[in-house]
Model the fold of this input.
Amino acid sequence: MAEDARVYESSDGTKWTVEARMPTASNAMIVFHNPLGSSSGLDRYAWYQWHGPEARSVMSRVSPDSVMKVLTDDAIALLFRRSMLITPGDTPLSGALNPQAG
Done:
């Protein structure tokens, strides 16, 4: 687990490792790693909007550890509820959008 990563336990009891990735001046990708591993295709992500001073300068970049320090447990829970699977095609709609698939 990365130094600044945290653990989030979802309502079904799954313990997800949470980390910030790809930070910019105004947002960062919050990744929820499933305990089954990256190859399971169950990792999830959501975008966190940064409102610090870096957000006012396109030349700035917020650090992942700064993002993780300001995320409360409630914020992480909200981000998890809004998160999406990282792996494309694993959604229930993937076959519905393309009747030729599957």
In short: The radius of gyration is 15 Å.
